[in-house]
Amino acid sequence: MEVNSNVQHGQRLKGKVAIITGGARGIGAATAKLFAQNGAHVVIADILDELGLELADSIGGRYIHCNVTQESDVESAVTLALTWKGQLNIMFNNAGVAGYKGSIMNLDMDKLKDLLAVNVSGTVHGIKHASRAMIKGKGGSIICTSSSAALMGGLGSHAYSLSKEAILGLARSTACELGVHGIRVNCISPHGVPTEMLVSAYRNILGKIDMGAEEVGQIIGESGSLLRGRCGRMEDVAQAALFLASDDAGFITAHNLVVDGGFTSAYSTMSFIYQ
């Protein structure tokens, strides 16, 4: 079988231009590094200026301050990519915020509005402005970060679960419109990746302010994966994004790639019946 030379040499995105929102740390940062290693020119769009600038410098990319709730900020990120390299091939709508615990009976509607502004409106802004550039460029890949909380009840707060399921619907809907232009729109739904955001959420939920990523990963690995003892890593999600961004996924659109160690597909505690 013939192997594409770009793939063979780890250059699956050679010459492509990518924007990653929320790219300064966590899953976004891991993806930015992997994209750059595979030949992409990466624009990191975030509100964490110091981290974002440092990472962009280290991978030969560009950084722009971008609050995804502000449509003009997202539009400016797309303009930067076009000004810098004359094209936009990949848009990874990854920026997001965690939910907050609490009963539906006491849901704070102002907090809900703020969360939806980031997780949902931010994604809408990304797809809207990326698609305009990609139509002119005759194709591209748009990727959106959803969550296992969109697939199963009880894995996230009401607000967070609502926002992440909305992203799935948005991606499928826009894939229908944009496919004729050669633009693919897909989602990635991670489960239990001990990012800074998830660790902070665990600290709040369990009331353990000194809890670290290793302890959170251990909890998830024991109860949140069929691959017992193994939790998801940021690099696992980055590899999924690399696949969807690359030409290897050229016939995949309106798809939700779940990165969960099988957790949302099977009942892991039933494994005793096979022993």
Automatic annotation (TrEMBL):
Coiled coil: none annotated. SMART domains: PKS_KR. Pfam families: adh_short_C2. GO terms for biological process: lignan biosynthetic process. InterPro entries: KR_dom (IPR057326), NAD(P)-bd_dom_sf (IPR036291), SDR_fam (IPR002347). GO terms for molecular function: secoisolariciresinol dehydrogenase activity. This is Secoisolariciresinol dehydrogenase. Keywords: Oxidoreductase. Its EC number is 1.1.1.331. Belongs to the short-chain dehydrogenases/reductases (SDR) family. It is an enzyme of class 1 (oxidoreductase). The keyword Phosphoprotein does not apply. It comes from the Eukaryota. Residues 16-191 form the Ketoreductase domain.
